[in-house]
Amino acid sequence: MHISLLALAGLTIFSSSSSSLLLLAQAQPQPCGGAAFAKVGNTFYIQGGATYADNLIQAFWALDLSSPWTTSSPAWSSISPPGPYNAFHSAGVASDGSSFITFGRDTAASTNQVAANWVNTFDISSKTWSAANPPQVADTSRRDFYAVSNLAGSKIYILGGNAGPAGAVSTNVLNTYDPSTGSMIETAMPASAPQNSSTYAAVWVKRSATMLLIGGVNAGNYPQSLWTYNPI
Fold first, then answer.
1. pLDDT at position 24
2. What single DSSP character describes residue 66?
3. What are the phi and psi torsion angles at 75 (to 5°)?
4. Superkingdom of this entry's organism (predicted)?
């Protein structure tokens, strides 16, 4: 079950008179759900996403946060190559700002669109993608989680998520990924962490060196809880 919705497409403005219709718009991302997003330096990136009936989008956009833009028409830039079709995946960041990395695969979509790999890395300098299926990841159909980047520790943490063709299987593992080496560790979920959690929101809190997690679904239940967890 997919809950999160991301609609970062800005607004298209129409003005009309009796004889004409004027379209004033800058290229914008398509409204969708389940796009992967992350801020790398002064740039905000979004990749993929899905429209109605889990139709996947193959798109990659960047927004420069260091320059002013109007809220009605953000200055998005389309990036090529766009990376694989994918949705309900999540993105992390290399600590040196060199790469934007997505994790997860939406296996509920049309089979000719499903991403082949669980980890997809965009090198910002060379503008190239690389991909991998780490053997440590037991189920590469996992998605509906949130990748949390610890920039100071050069680690990305991935907790729980859903799996299976329809995303109906709860998973209860914790992954630790090191972008500098490409190493992946997968362990059983610690007892102190939320169990069988998916579709939550999470962020790394630098001051306390902890993951902060809120909401989501825990094996079919909807907890009204706020969790902090120190994976170090």
1. 45
2. T
3. -85, 65
4. Eukaryota
